[in-house]
Write a structure and sequence with these properties.
Blueprint: H1 2-14, H2 17-51, H3 56-63, H4 70-106, H5 111-114, H6 122-130, H7 136-163, H8 169-212, H9 225-242
């Protein structure tokens, strides 16, 4: 009986700060999707609505035969804003991605490419494993950078698409498709470099674990009710928003 209580305490302790950091990371990813993609997408569509090129009457006429419930309409709107935001972010990152692509092709060991802010290094992955809190400031600024870039493209692209009569829906879709094709084309070498960084981080992690392993078990700590409550609260909020 005592052993089962001790194991339960150990499990609760394991769900303390590490569990809280895990839930915060999930929440951060959700916030990045909302602020970095969905909101700029909503700005872009709002320009279309204000310009008169998008009409709520037309949208209602399109959905009316299906009679979708309100939650389905809201979910569809969020998905549309998110997809549009992905295109806007791809446009914002295209110049940088193209420059990285051609410099990496010319010299795979180019220091400029290796230390570019959008690159992932084995050293950063090792920091994330050992001290995840160190990267919180970097992650916040990454979200701000995505938001600024996507919103910039939303404003400029919204004016271009909705305020110029010569650019119709078909040409807009074609241009967006070409931009995403270029983004995908340049993403493949980037994924290869990320794969190499993960392998490098694995070697560093193994070396660190061997140097710091003492063979002693960690001392048992009492569970923190406040930490566990925060973990449960963040998890419940993330799950609820994810179901929308």
């Amino acid at each position: 009986m005592a052993d089962s209580k001790n194991s339960a305490k150990a499990d609760d302790s394991a769900q303390g700060w590490p569990g809280l950091l895990s839930e915060l990371q999930k929440s951060f990813n959700l916030l990045r999707d909302v602020f970095g993609y969905a909101m700029p997408g909503a700005v872009f569509l709002s320009i279309g609505l204000l310009s008169g090129r998008i009409s709520l009457g037309q949208v209602n006429k399109l959905l009316n035969p299906y009679q979708p419930p309100t939650w389905a309409v809201v979910a569809l709107l969020i998905i549309v804003c998110y997809v549009v935001g992905q295109v806007l972010a791809a446009v914002a990152y295209t110049p940088s991605n193209l420059r990285k692509y051609f410099r990496a092709r010319k010299n795979p060991a180019d220091p400029w490419v290796k230390h570019h802010p959008t690159e992932v290094s084995g050293h950063l992955l090792e920091i994330q494993r050992l001290y995840p809190g160190f990267l919180s400031s970097l992650e916040r600024r990454e979200t701000i950078a995505i938001l600024i870039g996507s919103t910039m493209v939303a404003l400029l692209g919204g004016a271009l698409v909705f305020c110029l009569t010569w650019l119709n829906l078909c040409w807009t879709v074609v241009i967006a498709g070409v931009i995403l094709l270029v983004d995908f084309w340049t993403a493949m070498p980037h994924l290869g470099r990320v794969q190499g960084a993960v392998s490098e981080a694995y070697v560093e992690a193994e070396k660190y674990d061997k140097e710091h392993s003492t063979g002693k078990s960690k001392p048992e700590t009492k569970p923190d009710d406040v930490k566990q409550a925060l973990v449960d609260l963040i998890k419940a909020a993330t799950d609820a928003i994810g179901k929308l």
